[in-house]
Amino acid sequence: MLMATFNGAATLPKVLEGCCQLVAPPGGWRLIVADNGSTDTTAQVLAAYAGRLPLARVLETRRGKNAALNAALALALRAPGAPDELFVFTDDDATPEPDWLLRLAQAAAAQPDYTMFGGAIVPDWVTAPPSWIERLVPLGLTFGITPPSQVDGPVFPGLVWGANMALRRGLFDAGLRFDESIGPTAGAYAMGSETQLTRRLADAGHRAWFCAGARVAHHVRAHQLALPWILERAYRFGRGKFRQDCPGVFPEVFGVPRWMLGRWLREAAGLLAARLRGDADAMFRRRWELAYLRGYCHEAWRAPRPGPRVLITSYSGELGGMELRMAQEAQFLKAGGIDAVLGIRPFPGSAAWAAQLRARRLPVAKFAPPPVFEQWRWRRLNRWRAQLWSAGALRRQRADLVHVAFCWSAYGATALWLARRCALPAVVSVHNTFPPGDVSAWHRPLLREAFRAVRGVYGATESALQHFLALYREYLPAGVRLAVIPNCVDTARFRPCTALRQAARQALGLPAEALVLGSVARLSPQKRPEALVKLLCALRPRFPDLFLVLAGSGALEPELRRLVGTLGLAQHVVFAGFRADVETLLPAFDVHLLLSQREGFGIATIEAMACGVPAVATDIPGNADVLRNSPGGLLVPLDDEAAVATAVAALLADPTRRARMGEAGRADVEQRFSMARVQAQVHAFYRGLL
Questions:
Q1: pTM
Q2: CATH 3.40.720.10: does it fit domain 2-222?
Q3: What's the angle, vertex CA 608, arms to CA 607 and CA 610, rounded to 5?
């Protein structure tokens, strides 16, 4: 249990008395109080309870609640603990009920897929509030009181508040910390001390659960019932709201969404009308809204940007694994307090993808410099165009570092060159294996200039990194940071599930007891989907109830449908199309196949393994990095159809072996490719580069 306090001597005794009555959850508990440089008798109060509570005090003289909480975290993390252990946060004026910790522990044990937990916060009024407060004031935003109607279940993370909040330890082991630029501190401040953190976690894919039975009583002082104090809270809420919003979603004027300025004008006109009518209730509502909007605009116009900003971009031609990883990296960075924006080059389907990203509160911008390196024919003209216009476009992103994702040899080098022209440091991620090639004499000096911006390079696999270095090592600066950071899978979303298996088979029209081969991949030449159809044809004489599911779309689909018809397999091949919900589809498979001729990583392979499905892939760089020595999969030759058929047939004929491989594959993914592990690697890679 962690708590920050500043001059809390007036309320701490009641809170600590409540802690003395707590029923210990399984494994026990301890309390760490971060004293934020108190000048009253807080130290003496804490010392008086040291013998009655498992209490440790840490002194943090840097002013600010979040600085104090980070100091408490540093002490808590020194002791060993499991990733699913709960770190429970509360305030120095929130008195817990005796079963508080026990209830939170029970909720966390019952909901292993959730990482954030909130409980009920009820008011502890020093004096009865005036009727207008309970009638008009938003009690949650003003006093941190949860609505009585809130029941157990999933909850919006912004409703998990600091007086009654629990997060799993693994989040902090991965580098999560509170943003010290917001929250209570000396003078005026932006609200959102804890909700900024929970919203970041939500952006990274974590989920919150509300436990109504875990209750604390929040002490509300007499002076907090006065109108000026309440309006000041509205102003602070506006400042904090700006910090949590996603810029670029709506058209802006001076950094403020245009619609919000219109709202300010409407509220001002409404206040004037309410004054003329003598409507006191309407006047308060309008004043509260105007105070909130004033805080929002203040933060947009005057507040410094709280942290560094990374532009993540590439030379994309379609939505694939690399693009999804770029978005995931932006989420990881946001979870670590780093602002990230995706610079997308338009491609078919990019507009819909951008809308999805904005819905997930990820900033998106169009960034499409002329292809100086990626296109030969107009290279000279494109160079001048890039210098004249694209360098300015890059500067307008206000990035502190540019991340360029390479999907092929020179695809991304233009963005790297522009970063150098704008004096911005850069990092490179490599998402494919590509052979060494000759660099033209015209491009060579430009590449030398471009790579002077590079501070770090990581590959999605060791093979991808080594292929990149074989081509570009001579251009890299001395001391550049090198790493391998794999793709990852959400093991809470992708999991073995008998119910999903049955539902998916029913939806696809597959017999419940049939054997099913499946592949989640684009229907493109690189993925060789025709090899899957031929494999099915070769295996069906031995396994007459064998089916093939192709989950993906692409240019080869018409040709594949013709091949399926020619081979008489129309009743045994399901074209499932592109699926955003592949986690509901994968459990239906008995074996997942990825027979690519070239592969950067193969995200579908680890997604299948996370679902307990054995994975078979061609023995090529990328696939081999994932499956070599993995107990959950097999590597098969690229150019030996008979060997592939023999290996897959042996799997289909042995359900015990498939089950054993499925269990081992799931464990392997949890150890090597979990989101928490990869997020920690991403944070470590960027550390010191920004």
A1: 0.68
A2: no
A3: 65
